[in-house]
Each structure stands twice: as C-alpha cells, then as structure tokens.
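Quick one, T. Sequence first:
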Amino acid sequence: MLAAMSIGTEPTDRRIPFDGLFNVRDLGGYETVDGRLTRWRRLYRADSLNRASGDDIARLTTLGLRTVLDLRTAGELVDRGRFPVDLVPVEYHHLPVLEQIWDSDAIEAGADGVAFLILRYEEMLTSGATSIATAVDMLADPETYPAVFHCAAGKDRTGVLAAVVLGLLGVPHDSIADDYGLSRGGMQAMIEWLKVTRPEALDAMVDQPAIFLDAPPLAMTGLLDLMSERFGSIAGYATSIGINDATVDSMRSLLLD
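Structure tokens:
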C-alpha cells in the first residue's frame, strides 16, 4: 500500500512502494541553498515503469501523473515496451540519454568502479544534452505536473537528470549525491525480488559488473565536481546546452515552496 499522502501533509518516506518497481521516489522535501523546499507530490524519479502491471497500475494512478519522460534507448523500448499509457493515460515522451546501454565488457576487471561511473555520466552530459534540455523545458510548463522521469534501473540516466534538475533548483551538491545514493536500496530490492519471482533471471543480473548494481554517492559527487570545473556550475552546464534563465525560473516557481 502507498503511504498516506493527503493534501496538507508530507510523506514520511520519499520511496514509494510497488510490487514490481523498486526505485520510485518523490523528489520533494529537499532544502535549497536559499532555504526553500522542493515540493512533494510534483516530481518523481523511477526505474522501469514499463514493467508495471496488476496492483502497481492502481498505485501509479494514485500519483495523478500527467507526464512520463522515458530516458531509455530506442532499443530498450522495442525489447521491453513502454509506459502503459492505455491503462494510465499520460503524456508520454521518449527522451533517450544514451544511444546504447552499457554491456559487461564496458569496464575492465579490477577497474575503479567510481571512476567508471563518473566517466559514463560525463558522457551522458553530451550524448543526452538534447534530451536533458527538452526535459527541463517540459518541467518549466505547469501542464506537465505531476511528472515522472525514468530509465531502466532508475539510477544512472535518471540520476544524471535528477542531478541537473535538483541543481538548478538550488539543492546543495551533498543532498544531490545523497539522493543518488538512495538507489542502492532499490537495486538490492530488485535482486531480492528476482530471487523469489524470477530466479532464472537472477544469474544474468548478478553476473554484471558490481558497479552496474551500485550507486556510490562519490560517483555523483565526482560528476558534480566535474560540472563545476568545466562549466562553473550546473547552471553553467544548462546554459551550454541551450536552457535559458526564464526556463529555469519557471521550473523553480513550479517545484519550490
């Protein structure tokens, strides 16, 4: 069951429980550097929403979603399907951040996993620039909300977009890294679910490089430091990919109390 989230109250846990989804979280409640708070029940991050079925459809409906931003590749849409818009009517947008998903050969044995993630996330800033800019433009429109963005695991591509959005809202870097790190729990929950419901798929999951299943906050800290060094700030990166101040101001007005 979903935790009660009536108007005028705040959730006690940003993680929203589902049966077959493991990394759905509310991005509300984060304090900004100017003392404001991100709004609850407005913007969510998630893993493979295309997997939703049964009671999870009803749980998604309770979120009142208007917009879904899918950050996965075109190949993933073909292989795994997309958000069930026939059951939960939303505005669905495909905004790929990568051209191809990583494979197990992408990292050499014994390589520094955190350094690997930082490099991959840095690449997303370029390969996904158009999609990131489009997502921010959509989040500057009041008709978009409530909204959710997702990839497959809900930690890497979703984590990069979450970092850009939270950074533009003024959330401090340490809070952004902590939010990213919450995906560790989601990944472990997915593994435990596979053990019970799909043991035949478990081997393929755990045979991946360990860093593919982890979300070390240092990886996000490294990306944020890199953005500061290269662009001056997250806002500087946003400007470099065509996001203007008016768009950021509009998004802030919609997502901050």
